[in-house]
Design goal:
The protein is α/β, with parallel strands linked by helices and 203 residues long. The protein has seven helices and ten strands. The strands form two sheets. The chain has a six-stranded mixed sheet, with helices on both faces. The protein has a four-stranded parallel sheet with strand order 9-8-7-10, covered by helices on one side. It is globular, with a radius of gyration of 18 Å. It starts with a strand and ends in a 10-residue tail after the last strand.
Length: 203
């Protein structure tokens, strides 16, 4: 029996998830269908409720719904809890399980595919939304020397830094929050774009 999945976002046409997941399913002998769904900005919970009612197995979540997905989940994995954002929903009957694979996927890609070590590096993380929250802890676990969170709205970046300081788990990393205008003249080894810029021609 074919299991139905989808990736949900707004915008969504940029997503390569259907190609990736369908290719993986063929390699592993799984019978799935996987589609893109453009969700209205004010109707994400309704879209999820429809998928659950129609028997979908789960969904991936992209911008700008990762924080809403976190709020909708009945259960959270540890890494989703740490991130405060969800990019993967598993539908187990009426129950929704939330996970976040953004950070571990990004770190794996940088270190093993690009062969760039994050330890001791000066890293700039652009953005302070759900995507940035998803990669924050996994990046810090690699022990960079500096992590700067830059955002158009400085208050959001400052709140991320405050949460890190309150947790006390990453005292060995210098973490700062900047507005974009404050970045002039600074240099970084690695830049991570966690914004929606570049997802469409109009961005």
């Amino acid at each position: 029996m074919t299991v139905r999945y989808a990736v949900i976002g707004n915008p969504i046409e940029h997503s390569k998830s259907p190609l990736i997941h369908q290719a993986f399913a063929r390699q592993t002998g799984q019978d799935i269908s996987y589609e893109r769904i453009l969700a209205p900005l004010d109707a994400f919970p309704q879209v999820i409720a429809t998928l659950v009612a129609e028997g979908y197995g789960g969904a991936n979540v992209t911008v700008p719904f990762k924080l809403e997905a976190f709020a909708l989940a009945h259960q959270l994995t540890e890494r989703a809890h740490d991130a405060g954002a969800v990019n993967t929903l598993v539908f187990n009957g009426p129950d929704i399980i939330g996970d976040n694979t953004d950070g571990v996927g990004l770190v794996t890609d940088i270190q093993y595919n690009l062969r760039v070590d994050l330890a001791g590096k000066r890293i700039l993380l652009i953005g302070a939304g759900g995507a940035a929250e998803g990669v924050l802890h996994p990046v810090l676990e690699q022990r960079p020397s500096l992590l700067v969170i830059a955002n158009r709205t400085l208050d959001k970046a400052l709140r991320m830094v405050k949460r890190i300081e309150e947790q006390g788990d990453f005292r060995y990393v210098s973490v700062n929050a900047y507005a974009f205008d404050d970045l002039q003249g600074q240099s970084f080894d690695i830049v991570i774009n966690a914004t929606s810029a570049g997802l469409s021609d109009s961005s």
